[in-house]
Design a protein that fits this description.
Layout: E1 10-15, H1 21-32, E2 35-38, H2 39-52, H3 60-68, H4 83-92, H5 96-111, E3 120-124, H6 127-131, E4 137-142, H7 145-158, H8 165-181, E5 194-197, H9 203-218
Parallel strand pairs: 1-3, 1-4, 2-3, 4-5
Helix pairs in contact: 1-9, 2-3, 2-4, 3-5, 4-8, 7-8
Bound molecules: cytidine-5'-diphosphate.
The site of cytidine-5'-diphosphate has 17 residues, from helix 2, helix 4 and helix 8.
Length: 223
């Protein structure tokens, strides 16, 4: 695999399921005028492709084929946001062939942010460790599991999906455990990641805290 050097400023945001990293990534992207990539959506698209074609997310050859045939035009499709797709995304994300198929797209996004944007914000599980280890600013976001479960319930409710919070909680914990323990690209803090716990922070306060950590690393790259 030929690699592309990443020289554009990149903000890498990793963290646990439903920790709020997507919201922070979007807001940081708007703040700096950077392109934003939700890498989790790529794994969710692979899972949706399989589910839609009656495929089995545990079938690694089928998952790899789905990853190579990923339909990026569906990245905004609300169908990828369900918990069923999230669980299947975590299953397919453990297959090396799936990760390899999605690597080049993410790397190219970091190296050449689309729409002429001057930098990129990418959120996921392995952005600071694997996709953009040279990123000047890395955040690792977490929040107490009960708080993440409540936020996810409210998020789903805003899309008209009613779910039991206790069930969401156990699913989030199971997904975190699977993501942390897989051999390839496990969820873990990069050694140079800055940790942010958003348990006691609303969206605005979490954004202010994230910006205070990121800005000293990113601002010098913008001149
Ligand atoms: O939104 P939420 O935090 O629930 O999940 P997501 O970021 O959409 O990711 C869904 C699943 O994709 C995760 O549980 C991971 O297994 C996988 N994923 C990954 O392996 N690597 C990434 N960079 C992003 C997501």
């Amino acid at each position: 695999m030929t690699d592309v050097p990443v020289t554009a400023p990149v903000i890498a945001i990793d963290g646990t399921a439903a920790c709020g990293k997507g919201t922070l990534a979007r807001k940081l992207g708007l703040h700096y005028g950077f392109a934003h990539l939700d890498s989790g959506a790529l794994y969710r698209l692979v899972a949706l492709g399989l589910i839609d074609s009656q495929g089995d997310p545990h079938d690694h050859a089928a998952a790899e084929r789905a990853a190579r045939a990923i339909d990026l035009s569906r990245i905004g499709d609300p169908k990828i946001r369900t918990d069923v797709v999230g669980k299947a995304a975590s299953t397919v994300a453990a297959f090396p062939g799936v990760r390899a198929a999605l690597f080049a797209y993410q790397r190219a996004f970091a190296a050449r942010p689309p729409d002429g944007k001057r930098g990129a914000v990418i959120d996921g599980r392995d952005i600071g460790t694997v996709i953009a280890p040279e990123a000047p600013a890395k955040l690792f976001i977490d929040a107490k599991p009960e708080i993440r479960a409540r936020r996810r319930r409210l998020e789903l409710a805003s899309h008209g999906i009613v779910r039991d919070e206790a069930e969401i909680l156990s699913e989030l914990l199971a997904r975190d455990a699977a993501d942390r323990s897989r051999p390839i690209s496990p969820l873990r803090e990069a050694p140079d990641a800055m940790l942010l716990d958003t348990s006691d922070l609303g969206i605005d306060a979490a954004f202010a805290a994230a910006l205070a950590l990121v800005d000293p690393k990113i601002r010098p790259k913008l001149v």
